[in-house]
Write a structure and sequence with these properties.
Length: 442
């Protein structure tokens, strides 16, 4: 089918936002204002971007049907995206379910706008689709108010595995008010910069034994991202994963429940994940049976993770630990270093906060309740890198710790400082097997 731009009444040029609303009459005016519409459709009122001076392209004008699994709408949607790319503009998806049997290729300066994620759906018609893909150098685009519905895990490995959005070396991109559901993965950002993901929902992100399936959002390298105000529920692996030397990102005010791995995982070797701010996130056990866990760990930093700040997070009933910093035996320089853990609340787990084979980390002013060990410093393995040195544990409030409020578990934990901590109903205050532990500070 040839690409045809939607025409105004004179048939001369693409419609502007004003002309599009005029063409659909009073209903269009109400849609823009969000008045007099059902609740689900009203959700779209905040998704209208400031694009009055850019043309709008309705995917149905290009041949998309939006009626489910029986028609492949991908060629027509792609035609609309390509038409918008010539000048920059908005590609609009009216309410409907748009089946795609191949991945869509995003272009710079194009804005994808649904009528609200509750009523506009992109549905994968085949397995292992990168439902929306952008390659190197593509940026300055946005995606707003669309549901990405996948086919679920296939056991595939590598880059060709189902994802709602896969972004390679993109920049200045916004993803907002979208839903990712029944998919093997949600969003993956590879060596990208300045990407914002806000107010999105990740529901039933279903993995398999494949190491590349089951993640909500993956930040692989890159920097300066904002992942804020998203909701994750029933995620097989981690809700948010930072790896491959990513840096300088804000992970804030996200809600995570029913995660089967660490809710937030930071893991890297050789090139450190550094200078991230992980702030105000909630890992909750709401709605779970008493014996069920919200996650394996609330927040887990593995190997080369340095100078990150973990602050004011609330973590309830993780299976193994609230916040854990760790490195394996013979890690060398690939160990957690210089991280700050402060103002967090951990409730109901085996270990509240642990530093294992990590150096010069600060654990201060946290509150930990109903655990076996409140704060643990320990080593793993027998090699020369099996040590935990110069960590500071101070000003923490520790309650109902059945083993110890603070435990230094190995003589290879050297020159750590533990002072100014308080609490009650603990089996022991400080259980110290370390070397040269300082129990008074300055």
């Amino acid at each position: 089918m040839s690409t045809i731009e939607p025409q105004d009444n004179e048939g001369k040029k693409p419609m502007t936002r004003r002309q599009l609303l005029a063409s659909v009459g009073a209903a269009g005016v109400l849609l823009a204002a969000g008045a007099g519409l059902p609740v689900k459709v009203q959700a779209a009122k905040s998704t209208v971007p400031v694009t009055d001076n850019k043309p709008w392209y309705n995917v149905k004008d290009f041949g998309a049907v939006g009626e489910g699994l029986y028609d492949d709408d991908a060629p027509y949607i792609q035609a609309a995206i390509d038409a918008a790319a010539s000048k920059g503009g908005t590609v609009y998806f009216p309410p409907g379910s748009y089946c795609i049997n191949r991945g869509l290729i995003m272009r710079s300066k194009v804005h994808l706008l649904g009528a609200g994620a509750e009523v506009t759906e992109l549905k994968a018609g085949d397995t292992n689709l990168l439902m929306l893909f952008s390659g190197g150098g593509v940026g300055s685009y946005s995606i707003d108010g669309i549901t990405f519905s996948g086919r679920g895990p296939s056991g595939a490995t590598g880059d060709i595995v189902e994802r709602g959005i896969h972004m390679l070396e993109g920049s200045h991109i916004t993803i907002s008010r979208c839903i990712f559901t029944d998919s093997a993965n949600g969003v993956r950002l590879v060596r990208s910069r300045h990407v914002t993901v806000t107010d999105c929902t990740f529901l039933r992100i279903l993995g398999s034994e494949s190491p590349t399936e089951g993640f909500g959002i993956v930040l692989e390298g890159g920097s300066n991202h904002i992942i804020k105000g998203n909701h994750f529920k029933n995620v097989t692996k981690s809700c948010i994963c930072l790896n491959a030397g990513s840096s300088y990102s804000l992970i804030s005010n996200n809600v995570m429940e029913q995660c089967q791995d660490a809710a937030i995982l930071m893991s890297s070797k050789l090139s450190a994940c550094s200078y991230h701010l992980i702030e105000g996130n909630l890992v909750t056990s709401e709605g779970l049976q008493e014996s069920a866990s919200s996650s394996t760990y609330g927040i887990r930093l593995k190997d080369a993770c340095s100078n990150n700040t973990i602050v004011n997070n609330v973590i309830t009933r993780p299976e193994k630990g609230g916040i854990q910093l760790e490195a394996g035996d013979n890690a060398g320089d690939d160990r957690p270093y210089g991280n700050t853990i402060t103002g967090n609340t951990v409730n109901g787990t085996i270990c509240g906060i642990a530093v294992i084979n990590g150096d010069a980390n600060s654990v201060k002013h946290n509150e930990v309740r109903r655990v076996q060990t409140g704060i643990l410093l320990n080593t793993a393995g027998e090699g020369g890198s099996s040590s935990a040195k110069r960590n500071v544990v101070t000003g923490n409030s520790l309650y109902q710790c059945s083993v110890a409020a603070v435990k230094i578990a190995s003589a290879q934990c050297e020159s750590n400082s533990v002072f100014g901590n308080a609490g009650y109903e603990n089996a022991e205050g400080l259980a110290d097997s370390g070397t040269n532990t300082a129990t008074e500070g300055f």
